[in-house]
Specification:
2 domains; four-stranded antiparallel sheet; about 170 residues; three-stranded antiparallel sheet; alpha+beta
Length: about 170
């Protein structure tokens, strides 16, 4: 017959040994984010895959808050939140119409128009709200470096994108 106390003591030692030699495992997590549109709303579908052992999907709504703030629902980590916002920004850039400037008067995007001392006007009508024709003629004559018509053609000039009927600063 075995001694009960000896068996109990032996089990306690085994437990202590297990505690001493517990190894931690670091898992490789892969996250894929895809933006989808459903019923005129945008969602970030987040697929998490840990070492091909465990897969989890979540979906977070994304939207544009005024003025020009890209937003998403709260999620697990700040890093993942930032990745969703960046993916949403890339989606908007790929699917929107890019503009170099935004009209000071009507807020429409523009790739050509009037430059008037760091204000921008997309048309004669918008320009004349601030500079009636006689005043415009005078200021352009006196300072042609700061008052003129121009076209922005370089992609590096793009500062705005029209997406979902909103002009957003990028």
């Amino acid at each position: 017959m075995k001694d009960y106390n000896a068996t109990l003591l032996q089990d306690e030692k085994r437990y202590e040994m297990k505690k001493q030699f517990t190894l931690e495992r670091t898992y490789d997590a892969y996250v894929t984010i895809e933006i989808i549109e459903r019923n005129n709303r945008y969602y970030a579908v987040v697929d998490r895959n840990l070492d091909d052992l465990w897969e989890e999907d979540d979906e977070y709504e994304c939207w544009i808050d005024k003025p020009d703030n890209l937003m998403t629902e709260e999620n697990r980590t700040e890093e993942e939140y930032d990745a969703i916002i960046e993916t949403f920004r890339e989606y908007i850039m790929a699917n929107g119409v890019k503009y170099a400037r935004k009209c000071t008067c009507c807020s429409k995007g523009m790739n050509e128009g009037y430059f008037a001392d760091y204000e921008y006007f997309c048309s004669d009508d918008c320009l004349y709200t601030e500079f009636p024709p006689t005043i415009w003629a005078k200021v352009t004559e006196e300072n042609e470096d700061n008052y003129y018509w121009t076209e922005w053609e370089d992609e590096n000039d793009y500062q705005y994108v029209l997406f979902n009927n909103q002009t957003i600063e990028i």
